[in-house]
Amino acid sequence: MMPCTWPTTLFFLIWLCNDVASKRNHTLKPRVVLPENYVKEMRPPARKGQPVIVEFSIYVVDVNSINVEDMDFRVDMFIRQTWSESRLQLPEDIFEEGDDHVTLPPEFFDNLWHPDPYFLNSKVTEIAELTHKFSSVTLYRNQTVRYSARMHAIIACQMEFQLYPMDIQSCPIYIESFSYSNQKVRFRWSEAGVTINPELKLLQYHIGQPLRLEETNGYMIDKDGNYSRLVVYFRFERQIGHHLIQTFAPSSLVVMLSWFSFWLDLDAIPGRVTLLVTCMLTLVTMFTGLRADIPPVAYVKALDLWMAGCMMFVFAALGEFVVVKVLDKQYQMNKNKAQESMPRIIPVRLNGDKGSCGTIAAWEGSGVRCRKVDITSPTSPAAATPAVHPTPSATTPHVVGVERRQSILQVAWLDADTGQERVLWREIDKLSRVVFPALFLLFVTMYWPVLLLKTKASS
To answer: CATH code for 247-338+430-458?
Structure first.
């Protein structure tokens, strides 16, 4: 061990005395500024009949999350309270030269009278309390006390989802005095008011500006009195970009994909049915996943209308296929009946007992009819044109048209201009290629302007 020299020992004693003195002064300062008859349970004196004014300001550091399922949001912020305490005795030696304030340890706050604000709509009381972990107490020459503390709170918010996913949530924070009525303590916003961290960014929301600040008096039934209350409204505006990419664009493409079935012939029944059913299942799966992001509410949301519209168009395309298939079946049935009922005429020469004569034998079913014809006559069928077996294609349109006139709905007819046969189910498919896109375009042009107008009105 090295021997202790006299200068070293003297320096050590001086340092130890200064350290003890500084600690002694540090602990004595609170005793100096508080008078002997100070009672912290009594509020500071004010003018007769006037309450103590406590000014508040908030600096929002971060909004951690906005939970739509639990309908709340988490916020980190600095709370600053300022009030006048005329009972304090502030000697000049506690202030440094050129300063008009002094910062004392947070423990000094327990020796002072202080207001008792609490967050009325906070879900977790323990988290929302002002603690001394990150806090400071500042005393000013004019006997003003300022207490600052950082806190984390979970705030309940009654959200509305009628315009989801273009909804705008207005979430308030209520700060109220717990023990002192508005006749004793009055809360009000300072000039700073509420400030939001300019670097704050949220995933799906944008914190709209400006914030609305209010000073009200709330009647508390359990305490039978009016209490001073401060209200700040946060405006969370949902950004539509995420849903445009993940919801509206894919669902629109699926609806357009279902229109391809109108170009497929009825012979491709498996392909046409598979296409439409796949589109329907895709929309159902897509919208089922979206419903998990928001709570099940009892009213209709804007996204529900879009979902219902898209599914209705795909379902209508599937219904159109069923209709044209039934019409095609009816058309084929009538066509077969016409072919079976068509008479078959063939030329036959029969030798009778009284000589040979030109006859034409016509079979209708199993019966045979014979009639005489004059082969030399120019007006006879045999002489005018050779008797041949008529083809079904030459007589089918006319016969089918006759059959259609006997039914309520004509599934085929002859075009008066071209003379060609037109089938009803083919005409429906051609018309659907134009009608379905036009109706969907009308739905889109009505949906978005109405939604934007309602969103603007709600803001």
So the answer is: 1.20.58.390
